[in-house]
Amino acid sequence: MNRSTPTTALLSAPLTRRDALKRAAAAGLVVPAALAVPNVVRAQDKTYQIAYLTPGLNVPFWKYLSDGIKQQAANTSGATIEVTDYDSRNSAETQLQNAQDAITRKVDAIIISPTDSATCPAVLEIAGEASIPVIIADIGTDSGDYVSFVISTNEDGAYQAGQVLMKEMEAKGWKGADVLMITISQARQNGKNRTKGITRAVEEAGSKIVQFLQSEDYTRAEAQAQALDLITANPDAHGFFTQHDEATLGTLAGIQDSGKENDIILVGFDGSPESVELIKEGKLRGASMQQPVLMGRNSMDVAWRHLQGEEVEKETSVPTILVTPDNVASVEAQLADTVFPVEATPVASS
User: Rounded CA gap, 334 and 340, in Å?
Assistant: First the structure.
């Protein structure tokens, strides 16, 4: 990567430092500090370009994570950092093309939330060939070299939410009853971890996840149809767990379509302003909420420190926040800061 600055260009002529200073003084010029002290590169002399490769900005979670990246970039002292979003639209082919486009632009770093863990190595490979550092924000990778990985505590969060689900079912007299689930892609490492966490909580309580469906387009309408299909096929189920917020909102509509609002307990993973309101109303009995804005801030912070030559942590775990009707009022301010931004930062997109 070419990290030359205007200062470097001034020093490229075959002049000694003493000659340069003499000429400047003779001409009555003020000598720039960078000329007076060679080899000093100031961050503010360069605009840094960061590419954020995201699975799909149609999903609020990824928009929130992008907002966090941009917040941190704007708040980085003494530096000008521009962040461009590349929407992969849940396509591995589009993601790879986006990576190639970013590399062609000679960005300084790539932050990627891959479409799934199996598609990330291809991006890591071509970025490595171009000597562009990569930070992974959520989901993970099956293999490859990267600078750092910022990840939620998916398994623990799903386990905690599962414990809430089991407690609520037992309170209704449904201890040991069947559970249904809508998941994110199980080709994603974070999806596998969420499934592992919820399964542990369910089995410890003597229940069983009898059927689940995976999201494909991550829309509310898709989840609504999936939920209704699952409920129809499993009339004895009394628990429902969803692994992302749009699935939660769609599943609630599916439960209402089935006429079983009083027979099924719904608990989810992730959060949005809508799901917080549903928790307040008691329609959603709990959710382990990731902190995508904080994940974005941490990812940009790691990228910047790496670009400045600092040694950075290989992995950063960002805890989930368990939200229930009992504690929602006390955590609401934190949710508005790190889960979903009150005021989104303007985005550049590609």
Answer: 9
Q: In what order do the strands lie in the sheet with 148-152?
A: 315-318, 148-152, 134-137, 109-112, 47-54, 80-87, 348-349
Dihedral sign computed on CA atoms, order 283, 255, 159, 187: negative
Choose among 180, 199, 183, 327: nearest CA to 263: 180
Radius of gyration of the chain from its Cα atoms, rounded to whole angstroms: 24
- The Cα 263–Cα 274 span in angstroms is 22
Query: What is the spatial distance between Cα 181 and Cα 266, in angstroms, rounded to a whole number?
Result: 10
Report the C-alpha gap between 95 and 112 in whole angstroms: 9
Q: What are phi and psi of 177, to 5 degrees?
A: -70, 160
For residue 288, the cross-strand partners are 269, 322
Residue-by-residue pLDDT tens, the chain, 350 positions:
333 333 323 323 334 434 443 444 444 444 343 333 333 344 557 899 999 999 999 999 999 999 999 999 999 998 999 999 999 999 999 999 999 999 999 999 999 999 999 999 999 999 999 999 999 999 999 999 999 999 999 999 999 999 999 999 999 999 999 999 999 999 999 999 999 999 999 999 999 999 999 999 999 999 999 999 999 999 999 999 999 999 999 999 999 999 999 999 999 999 999 999 999 999 999 999 999 999 999 999 999 999 999 999 999 999 999 999 999 999 999 999 999 986 444 444 44
d(CA 286, CA 280): 10
Strand partners, 53: 86, 112
Checking DSSP bridges between strand 315-318 and strand 265-269, what pairing results, if any? Answer: unpaired
What single string gives the DSSP state of each residue in 81-147? EEEEEEE-TT-HHHHHHHHHHHHHTT-SEEEE--SSTTTHHHHHHHHHHTT--EEEESS--SS---S
Residue recorded with tokens 């589009």: 94
Q: What is the DSSP string of 302-334?
A: HHHHHHTT----SEEEE--EEE-TTTHHHHHHH
Q: What's this model's pTM, rounded to 2 decimal places?
A: 0.82
